[in-house]
Amino acid sequence: MRPIPMELDKIESMIDAKEVLELSKELIRIPSVYTKEKEISDFVHSKLDQWGLSPKQVEVEGHGPDVVAEIGDSKLPAIVFNGHMDTVDVMQGWKHDPFGAVIEDDMLYGLGSLDMKCGLASLMIAFRTLADSGMVDGFRVGFQAVTGEEDTGKGTWTMVQRGWFKGAEAAIVGEGFGGLSSITVGRRGGAYYDIEVIGRAAHGAMPHLGVNAISDAAKVISALDSMELKTVPMVRADDGKPLSETQAVLEVVGGGPSLSVPEKCRLKVGRFTVPGGKTDHTEEIKDAISRLGLRSRVEVKMRRGPLDPYEPYATPEDSDLVRAASGSIEHFTGMKPRLVCGLSEADDNLIAQLTKVPVICMGPGEIGDKSKYHQPEEAISVEQLATVPKVYCLTALSIGARLSTQGFP
């Protein structure tokens, strides 16, 4: 990445740390549990409109609308900023008001502070800064605030289907796992299986006359827990450990109120797959079950649809996007970020899978005991918020310098 000192001075002078913090607090104070994102969508749209950025709202089935905006000539190649507006439900155990946006000991508390309203605020400020800078020349920048990420990814899927990634050369999802100490350059995928165990009903007082589907399902669960899973020793997960597949039984449904041997039991199983590995493990699961010699009949189906399965992905470490992001973080923090692979599937999986556009995740975040993603007392350190928009801007300008026919001096 070539240094562009004149542009850096201008960018740094245009970003106000207090404004990033205040916008983060405003977003946290708006409840936006997935499927209920209309209010925050209206707020983001109104804010971008006040800034003169000509935003649009795009309807998303079952959710609040996405918000999109672009700067630069629509015919030019694009760099996309993507972030989600929704949160998970309020978990039990909060001591602070989850919508209070209270600062205590330099930590900003609130539902979505980590996941990912502070990242969204940083993307918004970076997008406006690039628009006001006059330096978006020879390329364009797209902004997407999406809904439904915590549910099915329907907001980003809608962006793809409506053509908002057309001409994109790179995408940055503004969610940081570990903050600026790391960049998520890949992510495990997620494949989901419906397993139905079909036994034979009988009177519950005479179980020997039937085949208990729940009992056989318990054996299936044990066999699934014993399956061999793939490990990629040279790839680090975002928790710092070698990357491995995992598999878990997520739901068990069976039995009924009557005094009868249950004839059916259904399992939902998730298998979280690694880049370079297989996505469909149906045959391996069937083989593990067949060795049990069950009296029940067992059917295994992997879910398939517009959003299933999530494919794992890996953006090459020597790509322009990764090198630009790494160089930008190192410039502003003095530290080279770790390149990691995320453990859970997210919207960047969909972007990589459906558009083939190089994508990374980076932004404000926490590690260790402070990384309370999807947990009560979610909070983020305030001091990092001033730096993140600058990193987004420099990354975009660095990639734009390559895309532009003029380039920077």
Summed up, the helix count is: 10
What is the overall shape? elongated
Helix amount, in percent?
Answer: 25-40%
Q: Main sheet, how many strands, which sense, barrel?
A: 6 strands, mixed
- Give the count of structural domains: 2
Enumerate the spans where pLDDT stays under 50 for 5 or more consecutive residues: 1-5
**Gyration radius, rounded:** 24 Å
> From the coordinates shown, what is the CATH architecture of the largest domain?
3-Layer(aba) Sandwich
Strand order of the largest sheet: 1-2-6-3-7-17
Average pLDDT confidence is 94
Beta content comes to 15-25%
**How many strands in all?**
18
Q: How do the helices and strands follow one another from N- to C-terminus?
A: HHHEEEEEHEHEEEHEEEEHEEHEHEEH
CATH class of the largest domain: Alpha Beta
Ends apart, CA distance between termini: 13 Å
